[in-house]
Amino acid sequence: MNTLDNLPTSTVPVTVLTGYLGAGKTTLLNHILTYEHGKKVAVIVNEFGEVGIDNQLVVSTDEEIFEMNNGCICCTVRGDLVRIIGNLMRRRDKFDHLVIETTGLADPAPVIQTFFVDEDVQLETRLDAVVTVVDAKHIQLHWDADEAQEQIAFADRILINKTDLVTPAELEELEKKIRNMNAIAKIYRTQNAVVDMDTILGVGGFDLNNALTIDPDFLGEEAHQHDESVGSIALVAPGAMNSQKLEAWLGELLPTQGQNIFRMKGILNIQGQDRRFVLQGVHMLMDAKPDREWRAGEERKNELVFIGRDLDEAKLRKDFNKCLVASGKGFG
Ligand SMILES: Nc1nc2c(ncn2[C@@H]2O[C@H](COP(=O)(O)OP(=O)(O)OP(=O)(O)O)[C@@H](O)[C@H]2O)c(=O)[nH]1
């Protein structure tokens, strides 16, 4: 299990930019590079392309993906990315934010996992957010592509782009569908990928010290459509969790189901702890640690969201509830 504890505050925030072919990634990247946000942005693109912006660092990489040698079949590290970040860090004074644009056909997992797994990368950078651009008009043609669904599933921020090419009703339906697939992402509708930079840079989507609450709209809804193979499941329970039971459950769940769990995010009330306990997971990799203290008057509860493929909601719910302290009242 990896931990991002005790990182130096000088780590460089990293935004991973994904989206299917032609969705608008480069258009967004150009906004990021030209916008007056006061940040010096370095860019890594893993395809050969041109970004004709002066004074920016743009590096191209070829595909090079290593499976981890501990038998974990869904966790991979990109060797080329590790090396390029290492090289960039020697010019650390030249930039203060890093954007990695993935190819439209790439599974974003190996890029994201690199930030959970590689120790040198963890020392020097921190994953800020996964931003996914969706082509409102053409995504309909690509729903069956694993990459398109995974790009949505991993996102912290989703731009539904090309809103000029669809009707308001189509947009509404699309947003609902995306919301069901990914319950933790914030969704913005855009034209030409124009979006307020503060909403996509400096997000802290993977920051365990600053865990954002999980969207209450999603948690509060009674019924969700789980007709897609990729979906979100939100588990909520009042009371306190038994830490041993929780550890035993996750210790069994992730090795067996991790391949289908793209992301997991949780804020939990552990029995006997005054601080909230925060979990972040990507496939079988997980970070977990206490964050801020529960506030006076704040309702202590347990919220855990899974985003993945073919998740067994009834079993997850049952096993989650089994981790609750039996009395469940008043001791958390
Ligand atoms: N109509 C319309 N076209 C858009 C919009 N945003 C981007 N485009 C166009 O869509 C095309 C693809 O945009 P890119 O930014 O190159 O997309 P990409 O995701 O980088 O594409 P790949 O790198 O090929 O995967 C370009 O011709 C853009 O001008 C939009 O909101 N509306």
List keywords for this structure.
disordered N terminus; alpha/beta; single chain; seven-stranded parallel β-sheet; five-stranded antiparallel β-sheet; disordered C terminus; binds guanosine-5'-triphosphate; 2 domains; Hypothetical Protein Yjia, Chain: A,domain 2; Rossmann fold
List the helices and strands and how they pair.
Blueprint: E1 12-19, H1 25-34, E2 41-45, E3 57-60, E4 65-67, E5 76-78, H2 79-89, E6 97-101, H3 109-117, H4 119-124, E7 125-135, H5 146-153, E8 157-161, H6 168-181, E9 186-189, H7 216-220, E10 230-238, H8 243-257, E11 261-268, E12 275-282, E13 285-293, E14 301-309, H9 313-322
Parallel strand pairs: 1-6, 1-7, 2-3, 2-6, 7-8, 8-9
Antiparallel strand pairs: 4-5, 10-14, 11-12, 11-14, 12-13
Bound molecules: guanosine-5'-triphosphate.
Guanosine-5'-triphosphate binds near residues 21, 22, 24, 27 and 164.
